[in-house]
Amino acid sequence: AQKVTQAQTEISVVEKEDVTLDCVYETRDTTYYLFWYKQPPSGELVFLIRRNSFDEQNEISGRYSWNFQKSTSSFNFTITASQVVDSAVYFCALSEATSGTYKYIFGTGTRLKVLA
Amino acid sequence: DAMVIQNPRYQVTQFGKPVTLSCSQTLNHNVMYWYQQKSSQAPKLLFHYYDKDFNNEADTPDNFQSRRPNTSFCFLDIRSPGLGDAAMYLCATSFQLAGGKETQYFGPGTRLLVL
Hints:
The complex is a heterodimer.
Chain A: E1 3-5, E2 10-14, E3 19-21, E4 24-26, E5 32-39, E6 46-52, E7 59-61, E8 64-69, E9 74-79, E10 88-96, E11 105-106, E12 110-115
Parallel strand pairs in A: 2-12
Antiparallel strand pairs in A: 1-4, 3-9, 5-6, 5-10, 7-8, 8-9, 10-11, 10-12
Chain B: E1 4-7, E2 10-13, E3 19-25, E4 31-37, E5 44-50, E6 53-56, E7 64-67, E8 73-78, E9 87-94, E10 105-106, E11 110-114
Parallel strand pairs in B: 2-11
Antiparallel strand pairs in B: 1-3, 3-8, 4-5, 4-9, 5-6, 7-8, 9-10, 9-11
């Protein structure tokens, strides 16, 4: 069965610290897509990254980086030199190619608090 | 900028009084989604439209209906809101090709309060 686990419910860090948000997924599909979204207090889900199962290259975008490892079914997200504006709930999501639907399987989210 | 717009951002309604939430998009995406998100939970898909085809999730209550009069607009109707329907309602869109799994883009949400 498909599942996304974000074991960290809440993380607090001091500004400028690095922080990694974990995401572990389960799927039987060989083709699937993984996503990270940021949800600030305003409520909008902001798209951060999409990765398909055939692309295991890690990605860096400014202070954000993502580590995709199929061997451990993980798609972790690291924020370097965190800032107060990074405070939000972060969701990891999975979409399976053969599911026949466009449904995302969301994790339960990780609330990140960056303290000044 | 192309975007997903939701109105109103905050909606207060009375128990049992029908309410409609609206979503519009300038992305020209063919799929539109409605999600319900309760406090400290992940978004839960209620239904989606692929073009004009309506797809209801099996566990979406009958109290929730949707309309999509054209590509740009989609409405969520709650026929008789209960206290348990108080939540954030998120609209999303994606451009799907057959068999594809494209990224969903979300609107800012409408926070519904039921008194």
